Amino acid sequence: xxxxxxxxxxxxxxxxxxxxxxxxxxxxxxxxxxxxxxxxxxxxxxxxxxxxxxxxxxxxxxxxxxxxxxxxxxxxxxxxxxxxxxxxxxxxxxxxxxxxxxxxxxxxxxxxxxxxxxxxxxxxxxxxxxxxxxxxxxxxxxxxxxxxxxxxxxxxxxxxxxxxxxxxxxxxxxxxxxxxxxxxxxxxxxxxxxxxxxxxxxxxxxxxxxxxxxxxxxxxxxxxxxxxxxxxxxxxxxxxxxxxxxxxxxxxxxxxxxxxxxxxxxxxxxxxxxxxxxxxxxxxxxxxxxxxxxxxxxxxxxxxxxxxxx
Length: 310
Known about the structure:
mainly alpha
């Protein structure tokens, strides 16, 4: 997942933002070095979240995924906690430096320690409380994709003032990827709560499936999936009418199609283990959404970069 997020952040800059700016002779506000530091800061904070989760969820993971637990087997809980705190601190400080010194944005810099704090709260409290944990993961997923746009606020204002015809698609494309990250993380987290019902119930958690049952959770997943699909279809239609036909076809095949299969299969899943298939389909949709950056680059520049051939 860390590699995947790093590629998504690179995709936003290389496939969307830089090609749009190059059309009018501009360059990104953040230098390549500062943007690289930004990606490292995000990955460090994400890594702290995984470590916080591993530290607090040993008992639950022994019930839900006993074969994957390494805490207290290969590495001590104390070491895990120290590693989580170090990653959270380094990621927060580095992110603030990027925002303060690289982008000149004070308030945006505070989002980095806030994200680390939310991951800590998620691992200790939110993931056991109905939809609180699900919304936390969804919010952070959408924020990761939105952060590069926030750090480029100064350049976007310049683009919007002099070249509004380019600023509008930059905003719309970024919004699509951010909302996609929010929606797909929401669906994946809620589906995962169904899969983990047994272990969560034994540990006293009060997740949405435990409190309301699988039928009610399935209805919520159905409504949420339909809402996102409606937005994705509308966005695909808008891009298609603007000459992005190849990119639009990619959204349909790589994002919408896996979700339609997920939607169709959901009605036949009655037991928690069956929903593992849904998680795999959502992961395919996530990867497909990231791959559409390549098609977007192709649509904006007319050719694929050499590295996409490998």
